[in-house]
Design goal:
Radius of gyration of chain B: 19 Å
Strand content of chain B: under 5%
Shape of chain A: globular
Strand content of chain A: under 5%
Oligomer: heterodimer
Distance between the termini of chain B: 14 Å
Order of helices and strands of chain A: HHHHHHHH
Largest interface: A-B, 99 and 99 residues
Number of domains of chain B: 1
Distance between the termini of chain A: 29 Å
Largest sheet of chain B: none
Largest sheet of chain A: none
Low-confidence stretches of chain B: none
Structural class of chain B: mainly alpha
Helix content of chain B: over 70%
Structural class of chain A: mainly alpha
Radius of gyration of chain A: 21 Å
Number of strands of chain A: 0
Chain lengths: 190, 169
């Protein structure tokens, strides 16, 4: 439902702004060009998305996810103390974080939800659950596939040269986000 | 440093799967098919949202919006042209992809704004969607401070994306 409101709102705002700035004549053509651009964008991304979805599945089958999960354990124990007692929770959480890291969003969500169910108390989010959500919304990714696909689709010679910038940015946003969650957890009443 | 990263990942992923006696090529095909299905499933959303984005741009609404938000955004070093992307990113993933791709096409993939948009897209998530999926599935009513903390993380992402796009290239 939210998207229905947003879409209708966007169209209304365009009509109002066009009327104010006198750009009304180009609006209809722009709508059709936009629709066509959607198809062009999707086709230009298709190759890269196909390739990386395959590689993601391959990394899972080759055991790269398991290796990562092992390396992650010490950090996991610090962020989510409950994982020390709960082995199943530990497995779900590390699988969720690793799948996100490798860009397997579809694989990450079911495991994240499993972990969320184990972390909740009644209908209230615990501090650890809040931290899990913040980590998931901060998107720590090794290869941001979709963006690289858009860039190469637009004719960029080095679609991956943004990787260091993306890594630094998501590490900062995840780190500061979790810190903010930790601070808020101290003052926010249940 | 990143020159060989992607080719090496391609090789290592296949080699490690082979070592585990897995049918590496079959898995690649299967994953690729899933990826294309995913693309087809977001295609209608991409078309509709780019329709709206193109109308917004043609109407001059983008300039008005970035004009209004410019003082706040420039204070944090965020290019005002990315105002629309910053606003839509936490709400809809495909809309953000549409807006971001349009920014890259309009200003150039290797321009400051194009790179900033790319880093923003790559390092943030669809916050409200993620929160509603997780809390909906787990049956949680009281979300406490999750949304403020997650939105703060998004803001740090936008800020750092602008900073790294400016300093690293």
């Amino acid at each position: 439902m939210v998207m229905s409101w947003i879409w209708t709102g966007l169209v209304l705002v365009s009509i109002l702004c066009a009327a104010i700035s006198g750009n009304g004549g180009v609006l209809a053509a722009a709508a059709l060009q936009g629709a066509q651009a959607g198809v062009t964008l999707a086709i230009s991304m298709a190759g890269a998305i196909c390739l990386w979805s395959g590689v993601g599945k391959l990394m899972e089958a080759g055991g790269i996810t398991d290796t990562l999960a092992g390396a992650l354990k010490p950090l996991l124990h610090r962020l989510f103390p409950s994982t020390k007692e709960d082995a199943a929770l530990s497995r779900d959480l590390s699988a969720n974080i690793c799948a996100n890291f490798l860009g397997l969003g579809n694989a990450a969500t079911p495991m994240g939800i499993q972990a969320a169910k184990r972390l909740k108390r009644g209908d209230t989010a615990t501090d650890e659950l809040c931290r899990l959500i913040v980590l998931n919304t901060a998107s720590i990714q090794l290869i941001p596939t979709n963006v690289a696909a858009v860039r190469s689709g637009l004719g960029c010679d080095t679609p991956f040269d943004i990787l260091p910038a993306v890594w630094i940015t998501s590490l900062c946003s995840a780190g500061l986000g979790v810190t903010a969650a930790w601070l808020l957890g101290k003052v926010w009443k249940r | 440093m990143t020159d060989y990263l992607v080719p090496l990942i391609l090789f290592l992923a296949a080699a490690l799967a082979l070592r585990k006696q897995e049918n590496a090529y079959g898995i690649l095909l299967q994953g690729g098919a899933e990826g294309l299905q995913l693309l087809v499933s977001i295609l209608p959303a991409l078309i509709l949202l780019l329709t709206a984005v193109y109308m917004l741009r043609a109407s001059g609404a983008m300039e008005i919006l970035s004009g209004i938000l410019a003082p706040v955004l420039t204070f944090f070093g965020i290019p005002p042209q990315t105002a629309m992307l910053v606003l839509i990113r936490p709400i809809s993933g495909s809309a953000a992809l549409a807006v971001g791709a349009e920014l890259m096409a309009q200003y150039g993939v290797d321009s400051l704004i194009g790179r900033t948009a790319a880093v923003m897209l790559g390092s943030t998530e669809t916050t409200f969607y993620t929160v509603s999926v997780y809390f909906g599935a787990a049956g949680i009513q009281k979300t406490r401070y999750t949304i403020p903390a997650a939105l703060f993380a998004d803001f740090v992402g936008f800020f750092m994306a602008s900073l790294t796009a400016r300093l690293l290239f």
